[in-house]
Amino acid sequence: MPEICYQCNSPVVGDGIGLNKKLVNRGTEKFLCLRCLAAHFRITEEELGIMADHFRAAGCTLFSPQKQERTDQ
């Protein structure tokens, strides 16, 4: 079952969960979808995707080894 964005009630899965834990707080239990997370940091969703790819390539275990397709649009 996906987590739910606390601002807009969209599902948060995969990279969205990893980015929340990496950028906000590793122990967070409240999540933002990619759209709301991008707005929070005043960056684009594409930039978040680049960050997730960078963290994945660096071996961060918060991200699946394979890139995941976005599902929270």
What's the layout of helices and strands?
Blueprint: E1 3-4, E2 11-12, H1 15-23, H2 34-41, H3 45-57
Antiparallel strand pairs: 1-2
Description:
By secondary structure, the protein is mainly alpha-helical. It is built from three helices and two strands; from the N terminus they run ββααα. It has a two-stranded antiparallel ribbon. A hairpin with a 6-residue loop joins strand 1 and strand 2. The protein is globular and about 30 Å long.
- Element-level helix/strand string: EEHHH
Using only C-alpha atoms, the radius of gyration works out to: 11 Å
State the low-pLDDT regions, or none: none
Strand arrangement, largest sheet? 1-2
Beta-strand percentage? 5-15%
Termini Cα gap = 17 Å
Mean pLDDT: 92
User: What does the largest sheet look like?
Assistant: 2 strands, antiparallel
Shape: globular
